[in-house]
Amino acid sequence: MSMSGRGNDRPQMQSEGPDDVADRQLPDRIEIPYIRGEMLHLRPAVIADLTAMDQLEAFYNSTGITGKGPSAERAVVNAWVRRSVAWSKGLAARDSGVGDPESRRTLAWAMVTDADTDQDGSPDADATKGVIGMIFLIDVDGWSRSARIQVVLGRHFRGRGYSRDAMPRIMTYGYAAAPTGLGLHRIWVAVPEKNTRSISVYQSLGFMISGTSRDALWDAENGKYQDQIVMDALVDEYDPIRSLNAFGMHVIRENPGVAEALVAHGYAADENGGISGSEPGESASASRDSSASGGPHSDKPAEDHAGSDSRNDERADSGQTDVTDAVDKPDSDESVAEQSGEEHTASDWAYGSAETKRSKRAWWRTLGHGRDRANGGSR
Hints:
This protein is α+β, with helices and mostly antiparallel strands. It is built from 12 helices and 10 strands. The strands form 2 sheets. It has an 8-stranded mixed beta sheet, with helices on both faces.
């Protein structure tokens, strides 16, 4: 089953056939993979990890990060973990212990590190057995092949680069075709409009601003409503190598979905295990193999990366970012746009407007762009 016409006139990466309806049914039971990063590793979250989230003060400043109050944020995280555990056990969504008439599926990973950034001989997260937060794929929709991604980090582990390490790897798994991954077509996020740091980070990952929910959130700090910005990334737009490269992270080819992504995007491994692009002038030198300096197989511990990327706790506490990490390139196009107050447009894509698919520039994304609001909307 395929469709053509304005806005959908290019080949689909994931073909659809007579068995498409069956293919769009999520499995009754899922094996949540372990995923390795440089600074941390991700393991399936368990109910006991919820206690660690309280110890980590993970819901501190949730109103500035996600737009939800601390109690509401704690409640949804509790529900997400329980749904994830239920799915991994083959239980129906309604049997997860939390009411869910829509039977939504969710995957939850605990973010675990043994980093010792203050070099006192004790891991930073020793009190929580290495757990520093969680990352989720929420409301996994098999029919639409869509899911929302969110990171929730402990108060004192924000701004250290952990989200930048984890997010591209989870997205790579999500986009990978079954049975390796979930076979998603779209991954999206929702961010309060004042959380400009998160918007910048997501743009560096390849997300595009796709819509705005007007006055959807209450800004308690300023006593007024604020918009919620919806951003998304599609499978045929997302390049995991470039996403890792944007944050100076290494490719770990053993992770689920990486081998398929390398082939899909035309990357090749050289004799030394390095990864290079197939297009002239394109280089993935910053996306080296996991055996490069600082990678998981390196003699240099990953903690060194955590230490070098750390900010002080005061900045981390007050920083408003859903992924809790800002881009380390203050002069980048995204950051300059944020600092100057320029309006985001459909061309604000991390890899340049020339590379974004024209089919994605639907009328609802571009309507009004280029108009001068101060001049009555005229160009």
